[in-house]
Amino acid sequence: MNSKFFVAVTFFAFAQVFSQSNKTCDTPNDEPALDLNSITKCSIKDSDDKKTKKVSVQVTSRRRVVRKRDAASGVMTNDYTHKLASMKKKTDVINSINFNNAGGLKIIPFNYVDEIPLFKECESSPIYKQEKCFKQAISKHIQKNIKYPENSYDRGIQGRVLVQFTIQKDGSVGKLNIVSPYKGEELGKEAERIIKKLPKFVPGKHAGKEVIVKYGLPITFRIPGVKPTNIKKAVKKVEVKEEIFTFSDVEQLPQFKSCDNATLDCFNKSLVKHIQDHFAYPERAVNDNIQGKVNISFVINKKGEVINVTTKGPANGKILETSAKKLVEKLPEFKAAVKNGKKVNTKYTFPIEYKLDE
């Protein structure tokens, strides 16, 4: 096997918090995601009619806090303190704990902790250079220890693995969560192995006390000159000549294959989970402060395939429409809806609200 390969370690911000280990997702083709070291939220809103209840998904991407520190004294400026206090005040409840009371959180995101965890080699760096030193050190560790899985290399499996882990109060690596690219489970296992080999850190501190800190980064596996074989093809618009029914018209709703029963509640929860697992706020939309609601419609045909995806967003939100459409196109095959004992086509519509905190 040719052993040459390229591994990119980047530090884009990802608008995603992962709740389960070793999930899989599709590798985005163009839009970089945002902040793994921040927070997202997703909720279901019910209507009075249980049969026509819709899913409303709201995802919040938090802009990265820029630590402004005095180069000479190494002390954070009042501007930073006021900005952080303002952001905490506006943050929604996460796990029933408001960020106003950040000192009470059991796990604090890397972007919010007062003193970030450090590699031993970064302890002597000036405070304003410590974050850069941290990223350089973890990148160096990955480049030194990574081994491209032979089977994946031979099959041309490539993509980005999203990694999130905690740094415990004693400096050790704690809970580890992995999101692998489509058909890239071996890449995810390799990323997990590398992170577990990290040396002990100098623990992070918040309000003067050692705390557990959550950190995330993407690791990209790439084979130069080889086209990835694990990219899902985009869903093409297909004309459906047969009748299309709404959810309220059918006897048995379409359903995710992970659901035991064809209930609307399971459909909604599975849809929300899918969006949480795959959501990435477009970087250009963040930079240009583009926000708004995108209404999405799609058809689940008799085969359980997602077709005819359409979107309608704000006037300047074409990039948000593209992002929302990709989320729906990544949906897995469903169990088709049933009416009068036969499988039928069904249409579903729901909104995604893209919102940036100030």
What does it look like?
This protein is of the alpha/beta class and 358 residues long. The chain has two domains: 6-222, TolA/TonB C-terminal domain (2-Layer Sandwich), CATH 3.30.2420; 244-356, TolA/TonB C-terminal domain, CATH 3.30.2420.10. The chain is built from seven helices and 15 strands. It has helices spanning 78-90, 130-145, 150-155, 185-196, 264-278, 283-287, 318-329; strands at 6-9, 23-24, 57-61, 107-109, 159-167, 173-180, 204-206, 209-222, 244-245, 255-256, 292-300, 306-312, 334-335, 337-339, 342-356. A hairpin with a 2-residue loop joins strand 7 and strand 8 (209-222). The longest helix has 16 residues, at 130-145. The termini are far apart. GO terms for molecular function: energy transducer activity.
Q: Work out the oligomeric state of the chains in this entry.
A: single chain
**What is the name of the CATH architecture of the largest domain?**
2-Layer Sandwich
Mean pLDDT: 75
Approximately what portion of the residues adopt beta-strand conformation? 15-25%
Shape: elongated
Number of domains: 2
**What's the CATH class label of the largest domain?**
Alpha Beta
Tally of strands: 15
Spatial extent as radius of gyration: 22 Å
Which fold name corresponds to the CATH topology of the largest domain?
TolA/TonB C-terminal domain
CATH level-four homologous superfamily name of the largest domain = TonB
* Sheet of most strands: 7 strands, mixed
Distance between the termini: 50 Å
Uncertain segments are: 9-35, 37-104
Overall helicity: 10-25%
Number of helices: 7
> Would you tell me the structural class of the helices and strands?
alpha/beta
The SSE order reads EEEHEHHEEHEEEEHHEEHEEE
